[in-house]
Design goal:
128 residues; alpha+beta; Immunoglobulin-like; seven-stranded mixed sheet; three-stranded antiparallel sheet; 1 helix; 10 strands; binds 2-acetamido-2-deoxy-beta-D-glucopyranose
Length: 128
């Protein structure tokens, strides 16, 4: 009984240690801003304009690449990589206006915001 309790504590401690030590390494230069809009339940009409937003409240001190890019994804597959919805804006802006492309209607679209690395919104719907 005592042993397993001690083991549990030791495991917990190790898990915490792993989180704490992994944090700063990731945070040093990889900025993966969480997308805050569009979110689950969002419906966009093809051709309309919207501000994609993402959380910039916790950026790393140094960012290796501060140029952002926004790409549409459908069913988890990035669409039109050669023609992003937006690019070359400052990733620390936290917002960028895009025009919804004239794509087929669907409820498995997501917006991916790339800084150093990509971060996808939840799936949302595009209608036309
Ligand atoms: C996006 O945000 C900017 C700044 O707040 C605002 O001027 C613009 O009208 C917004 N665009 C849309 C489509 O809401």
């Amino acid at each position: 009984m005592t042993t397993s309790y001690t083991n549990t504590l030791a495991l917990l401690f190790l898990a915490l240690l792993a989180v704490v030590s992994a944090g700063p390494v990731l945070k040093r230069d990889v900025f993966v801003p969480p997308v805050t809009y569009p979110r689950e339940g969002t419906v966009w009409k093809a051709g309309s304009k919207h501000n994609v937003t993402w959380d910039v409240s916790n950026p790393p001190k140094q960012i290796t690449n501060n140029k952002g890019m926004i790409i549409l994804s459908k069913g988890g597959i990035l669409q039109d990589l050669d023609d992003p919805l937006a690019e070359n804006f400052n990733i620390l802006d936290g917002r960028h206006e895009i025009t919804v492309p004239d794509v087929a209607a669907g409820d498995d679209y997501a917006i991916v915001v790339f800084g150093d690395s990509g971060n996808a919104s939840p799936d949302f719907t595009i209608t036309n």
